[in-house]
Write a structure and sequence with these properties.
Keywords: Membrane, Transmembrane, Transmembrane helix. The protein is mostly helical and about 180 residues long. It contains eight helices and no strands.
Length: about 180
């Protein structure tokens, strides 16, 4: 039983992170930031054609959020610059185009609506950001099942973060 629990450490990590964010202030901003960190982690791994880069991106892109805010720049603007740089880096180092473009598309499909959510009413924004985050779990599942681009452990952790946090943000906003 201990081995089975140890193998599920990514699930425990993702769920713990979701619960902590829900306890300490889940809102449209946290949902939007979370989904955008996630898509950049996948995008970076594809751009550098190195799976481990996705885990490094969790910390790295969180630092970008804080640095942007300290500099008075919206985090999403800094992320847009990072995304363009990742795309350029991916082309420059000749990363596999299919993976690079698929992750770029996913970044737009999940990340852009979450940024738009920041400019809607608090309830509408929370719903859109929460849905963007929760539906990102489908992308996690695709990458988990294919075992491509990012480590399975990251996809697993991300699923267990995305769904409860996304739905939780919607519920909390609707209850307010």
């Amino acid at each position: 039983m201990t081995n089975a629990l140890l193998r599920r450490w990514p699930s425990a990590l993702g769920l713990t992170a979701a619960v902590l964010v829900l306890i300490f202030g889940a809102d449209r901003e946290s949902a939007s930031t979370s989904v955008n960190v996630a898509v950049l982690c996948y995008f970076a791994a594809a751009a550098f054609d190195r799976r481990w880069v996705a885990w490094a991106g969790v910390a790295g892109f969180s630092v970008v959020v804080f640095a942007a805010e300290l500099g008075g720049v919206p985090w999403w603007a800094a992320f847009a610059v990072v995304a363009v740089l990742l795309l350029g880096a991916g082309f420059a180092i000749r990363a596999p185009r299919h993976a690079l473009l698929a992750q770029a598309g996913a970044a737009l499909a999940y990340g852009a609506p979450a940024v738009v959510a920041l400019y809607l009413s608090p309830l509408a924004g929370a719903i859109l950001a929460g849905l963007s985050l929760a539906t990102h779990a489908a992308w996690d599942l695709v990458n988990y099942r294919r075992n491509t681009v990012v480590p399975r452990s990251l996809s697993e952790a991300c699923m267990l973060l995305d769904i409860p946090l996304g739905i939780g943000v919607i519920i909390l906003a609707a209850a307010a």
